[in-house]
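Incident review: delayed structure delivery

Summary: a single-chain prediction request sat in the queue longer than the usual turnaround. Root cause was a stuck worker, restarted by the on-call engineer. No data loss occurred. The affected request and its eventual output are reproduced below so the record is complete for anyone auditing the incident later.

Affected input:
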Amino acid sequence: MAPLIRLVEVLLKTETFLRDRGIDTPRLDAELILADVLNIKRLQIYLEHDRPMAEDELARVRPLVARRGKREPLAWIIGSAGFHAIDLAIQPGVLVPRPDTETLVEAALEWIDADADPIYVADVGCGSGAVGLSIATARPASRIYATDVSPEAIATTKANVAALGLTDRVAVLTGDLLSPIPPQRPVHWVLSNPPYIPSGDIDALMPEVSRHEPRLALDGGRDGLDFYRRLVPLAGNRASHGLLVEVGIEQAGRVVDLFRRGGFVGVETWTDLGGIKRVVGGRKPRSDDYEAEAQPH
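Output delivered after worker restart:
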């Protein structure tokens, strides 16, 4: 009979294995994989560190650790990620939401009137639904159009809408940019975390991104600005209140220029926790009057 292996031993071996393969947070990742397999909180790993692990538990841990060792995104492996104030289901083929993108949510919440009812928001390139569903959770009067061209993104966002109980306030629509939103429907705000990595830079990114994450959600063209060039004029024609977007490193100034040329006023930038200008927002040159908006039919 093989000797029993304690939980703490598995934790330490997993940490070492992941560190040797270049994982930046090997202890955290080991904790999260074990907590997921055992269906426990991370703290319980230490409260129960001497418990023996059954062979069926080890059999479930091993392939997950091997996947992480190949630099597959952790969120794909455990099937979820926390973002802002919500937890999201994440599946392979969908961009993993980053803490930097919470800056976009916070900026939008600064500008979107909490007392307005209703508020119509388009989340363009919704991915997992992180941005739009965070707004829906924080602003109960909001109605969200979540759009994407990726079947995996649409399926993931629909699953998250259902899990969060938001089916009555979020429409998940397949199509390019704003095109799937019926023209008679009002749109007050457009939000987007678009693909903004210059094409030539993608292969040099960390393996979790360059080898695994969908290029469609990353590739912003030669200079990373292709998506903004398309979205800004469309949002200028459609959104009655304004547009806010996430941007890449050293892109804010050029995106600000696009906003101004697109007729937006009061253009501002927001920095992320690393001090990088991460969000650009602009308002339409008109008063914020939600009550004057036509109701959808």
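Verification: The first helix runs from residue 7 to 20.
Action items: add queue-age alerting; document worker restart procedure.
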